Amino acid sequence: MQTRWTVRGSSARNFKSGLSLWLILWLVVMKPAGVAPCPRLCVCYPTPMTVSCQSQNLTIVPAGVPYDSQRVFLQNNRITELRADSFGFETQVLWLYGNNITWIEAGAFSNLRVLEELDLGDNPSLRHLEGGAFRGLEKLQSLHMHRCKLAALPHDLFHKLYSLQFLYLQENQLHFLQDDLFSDLVNLTHLFLHGNRIRALSENVFRGLVNLDRLLLHDNRIRQVNRRAFRDLGRLTILYLFNNSLAELPGQTMKDVQGIQFLRLNGNPWSCGCEARPLWEWFREARISSSELVCTSPSQRRGQDLRFLRELDFALCPLPDPGSLTGTTTTTFSTKTRWWFSKNKPASSSKALYQKNTETVKAFPFAAIKPQFLPKTPAESFPSKYELSEDEAALPKLDPEEYWANYGNEDSSIRCFDLECPPGYDNPAFSSSSSLPITPSIPHLLSLLIVAFSLQFLFR
Fold it and tell me: Per DSSP, what are the bridge partners of residue 295?
């Protein structure tokens, strides 16, 4: 009997040992759904699947990141290179900012087909990018490359990034933007380029950005803007160009962004001579509230706000030819300023000469105007633009309060527009408060009586 219980007890222990072994094997091989290994030095969170490996002094992208990870955080490490085999997983959000990335191989992100946000900012050693660096990211919506010391961008860097909406390129060292660089970014709404070293905006630099809502270009070194640089930006509402080196803007440039709502142009050395007239006219038509535009030249207008000048300040300026693509001028003057020449012919003692910017004005034909009407002065008496003559400087000024109170009706008091005004005209145009009664002349009354009798005779 004792032997029988001994055998039975041994069989029970063997059965329990075998059951435990099978349970362990099942747990290893048939692990519960949703449980995945987490890379070393990382922390993983479910729902949504997140792998956080930040601030671990990693030098390479860690292996073993679950393929179905939706968010992967690798910021603030010491990763130096991104290769085509660096990412063996499919994720929607990838943060790599604050590393030491110096090189990104073409196609490095090609396996990340569903990636929507990529942050490569704050990598100060990233000075160069290959053309195919972002190949395959056709679902990317947000790309961060701020503070990377990028000096240039390949022409095909953003090729086929049709879904991109936010592009952060601020605080790099960009000197130049190639034509059609952004042409595939048809859905881009925010473009941040401030804090670079850009010097000029060419005709096709923003071509294709038909849905752009805000464009930040402040704190650059922009000196020249092509008259058609903004031609595709019809939906732009925010434009920042402050703290640059702009002295003037072509009139057509701003006409292409009629939907603008917030405009900042302060912190530029504006020249408020004849070259400022197109921008001044745009402000009159757009009637937009913007930052101040302080004039730095000519000397008589230094410190004034370009927006608060009036048409009389441009009385001696030729109007640009609207059909010209090169910016040449004609001698056609508006009816509101023609009278000025007949009543205020520049005397020979008050000398001034207009030196036009060759980039905007190719010709200054005054053949249709008599020589005595042309002011002259030695070339050494004016700065890079021109100085005002005494007659032009004597024109009445308009303060901001009067400007906004009488917007669009500044010259309502002018009653004589012809070159030769009637005798006795006392030139009341310079006084906005003058409202002298107009007494009809005797020939005028006789004409009215004749017309009245004629009508009565016809309708009897």
Answer: 270
